Each structure stands twice: as C-alpha cells, then as structure tokens.
Amino acid sequence: MRKTIDTRFADSRAADLSLAYGLRPLPALGTHSVTLGGLTVELRVLGASHQVVLGDWSETVACLPDRPGALPAREEQVVGDYVVRFEARCEHPADFSAAVSRVIASCEADPHALVAEFPGSPLAVTALAAGASGDGVAWETWHAYPQAGELVYTKSVVSPR
C-alpha cells in the first residue's frame, strides 16, 4: 500500500532515532493492518518514524523527546509474552535515489507493506513490510533521510515466549 502523507517531511537524521517497546499507539499519519498466521500487525507511520502494534504490545522507532538517539545494531530481549530480536543499520548508498526507488517498488508490490511518501522530497520515505516468521511475525522498515543521504534499515522478529 502506498500513501502520500499530508504532513511535510521533518528534517531529522538516523542518529536521532531511538527504540522503545510497549508505548501506547501514537498518532499515526498512515496505517495498514495485516493478518499473518492469525496475528494482526498494525504498521504505523509516525512523521519520519514508525510504530508496529501487535496486540497490546508495540515497537516504536522514532525521534522520541524523552530518549537519546542511537539504535542498537542488534539486540534480543524478552518483552512481556514475546522474544524480540531487533537489528538496525544506517547506510549511505552511493546512488541514494536508486536505493530508495528499490525500496518503494518492493514494498508497493507487497500487500503486507506500507510506503509513506512525504511532500517536499520524493525521496523522503518511510516504508514497512511485515511477514510470517515461524510461529511469530517479522517486519522490516526503511527510513530515508534525503538531506543526509541516509537510509536506515531495521528488522524485527517477534516470537511467543
């Protein structure tokens, strides 16, 4: 699913992003719910960030005012009833435009994905794609920051404990 967001892209950068689990659903600019293996996953775009809601649990990757930026490269945690594996990396593709275009094309073709484009820059994109993973669910996200040429990739796998 592709959605153009009415809110202009806010300049930010990869280093401002932080990870939080269990936040209440934050106001979303775009949402897409998918059901995978009996589990409903809500993909949510929050400005230049994202939130994924699974039942009463959530993962938020965002520029949060009460948290310092810095995503972990890799971590595994037990959070409530789930085992969560998270990874993140920031890339500076030589051809930023082509890299973002590939993300858009891949997610646009996926019924379990959401691509949000922000006005002001055709390369200002947040994309999320969900899929089944064993007895749990997984999702990948991409945050494109054209002003810095940064493409942030995250992957999460959530399984029952």
UniProtKB/TrEMBL annotation:
Pfam families: DUF2617
Domain of life: Bacteria
Protein name according to UniProt: DUF2617 family protein
